[in-house]
């Protein structure tokens, strides 16, 4: 409810016209929106990273770099 209120205020401040829906994504949006929308933006709940995993995203994994990286 607070997030919807703040989002609505932000939309108004920037002249954005959209419908905000607060719902459980699994509660029938597919039927309600079928054929009516091109894009749906969803903000799933934030799940914090456990403290012991912070900074370990690439440890033990191969990293591929694209672009203008030096060859030597």
Automatic annotation (TrEMBL):
Keyword Protein transport annotated: no
Chain segments annotated as transmembrane: none
SUPFAM superfamilies: S-adenosyl-L-methionine-dependent methyltransferases
Keyword annotations from UniProtKB, A to Z: Methyltransferase, S-adenosyl-L-methionine, Transferase
Example of a GO MF term: protein methyltransferase activity
GO cellular component: eRF1 methyltransferase complex
Signal peptide per UniProt: none
GO biological process, one term: methylation
Keyword S-adenosyl-L-methionine in record: yes
InterPro entries, per database record: DNA_methylase_N6_adenine_CS (IPR002052), Euk-Arch_PrmC-MTase (IPR052190), SAM-dependent_MTases_sf (IPR029063)
Taxonomic superkingdom: Eukaryota
Record family assignment: Belongs to the eukaryotic/archaeal PrmC-related family.
Protein name, as recorded: HemK methyltransferase family member 2-like
């Amino acid at each position: 409810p607070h997030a919807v209120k703040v989002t609505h205020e932000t939309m108004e401040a920037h002249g954005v016209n959209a419908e905000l829906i607060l719902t459980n994504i699994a509660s029938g949006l597919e039927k309600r929106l079928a054929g009516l929308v091109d894009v749906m933006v969803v903000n799933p709940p934030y799940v914090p990273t456990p403290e012991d995993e912070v900074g370990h995203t690439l440890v033990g994994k191969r990293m591929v770099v694209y672009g203008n990286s030096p060859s030597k």
